[in-house]
Amino acid sequence: MIRRCINVIKKNKGSATSGSSDNASLDERVDIRYDNANGDSLFKDINIRPGLQLTISNSQCPQGSRTVHEIERAPISLGYNIRHPIRCTITHGRKKGEIFERSPGNSVLSYLPETSCIIETPPCEQILGISIHFSVDTFRGLFNEVPECLAKLIDKPRASHPRQHHFYQQSPFNSETFLILQQIMACPYHGEIRRLFIEAKIMELVALKMVEMGDVRQPEPPNWTHRDTERIKEAYQILLDKIAHPPSLGDLGRQVGINRNKLNHGFKQIYGDTVFNVLRNIRLYNAWELLLNSETSLVEIALMVGYNNQANFTNAFRRHFGKTPNAVRQESLCLCRTHKTMCLSQKTSPHFEPYTSP
User: Cβ of 26: how many Cβ atoms within 10 Å?
Assistant: First the structure.
């Protein structure tokens, strides 16, 4: 088990820039520490600038993992599950922990002061995800006028009413977001140019999240019970286990004891979309990873993720991502060759090296 402490640390007053609210974020930094060396094998923490930290998780995990996140003075965080599912148990003080299931293709925006989070991943081929941590002042500084959807999250606290509210919003991310995440993972640049490139991509992710948060969410259905939630999670796990040959919507509902309409509504509440769309997204994101990280043929990939022929797979992939599977594979190969050439010419390793600002 890895224990990971995430906090926003204020610098000493003597090092602060006096008198300017524009430089308020320079007084803070996001501090991430581990209780043992195993954290470095699972997480790569990259300091972008004061008050802004990027974390990339990219590792093999055949036994699964369990990470305890201890948060006191919290950052505002954006998290993206690119490949792996997780179970997140969030505990505030002595309250009973709340459990959230996040599937591949899900994102979360959160602010969780004085919180303990247990993140568990099942045995899987690869953990692949990105999280971004802003100090509250840095995040607020992105906007000349705070968007209405964020007013309660980043409103300026008063001394008499310190910020103690918690925020956790989970939803699937779209293909545009997925492409930006891929660009961050495959960034071919180095040094200051690398930092600038990644920071620009982070700003794009924030903008897309703001667009998404403008959407109206469906209210929770009446008479919804904890057992209903467990049935939805059970149905989701069945889809994961049978991605190539999933049951029909009616059969899936019968297996978990819930009707079709409630099943779809529950998926929208917990996973952000209908059963069909959640399954399709998982299939296509898995296909994307196979295109990038294996030499498996397009026909085999189509069958592995549940399409009965390559033509149907290609059409679905192009509608979702705006390009064909073959185009994605060729672009990946081209980028790898370019990156390798650059690294050889600069006599540097082609592997990802976190940027740390001086």
Answer: 18
Angle at 38 between CA 36 and CA 43, to 5 degrees: 115
Asked if 172 and 108 touch (Cβ cutoff 8 Å), the reply is no
Mean pLDDT over 330-342 rounds to 57
Chain centroid to Cα 284, Å, comes to 16
**Secondary structure (DSSP) of 73-92:** SPPEEEEEESS--EEEEEEE
Which pairing describes strands 2-10 and 28-34: parallel, antiparallel, or unpaired? antiparallel
pLDDT band (50, 70, 90) for residue 175: confident
Distance CA(305)–CA(297), nearest Å, equals 12
Rounded to whole angstroms, how far apart are CA atoms 129 and 146?
28
| β-bridge mates for residue 30, sequence order | 8
How far is Cα 248 from Cα 12, in angstroms, rounded to an integer?
60
Q: In what order do the strands lie in the sheet with 86-92?
A: 28-34, 2-10, 65-71, 115-121, 86-92, 98-102
d(CA 265, CA 287): 26
Residues 161, 155, 51: CA angle, nearest 5 degrees: 105
Question: What is the H or E stretch that residue 68 is in?
Answer: strand 65-71
Q: Length of the chain, please? A: 358
Q: Please tell me the pTM assigned to this model.
A: 0.66
C-alpha span between 335 and 357 (Å, rounded)? 26
- For the cut 50, the answer to whether the pLDDT of residue 68 exceeds it is yes
Task: Tell me the two tokens of residue 248.
Answer: 């029909």
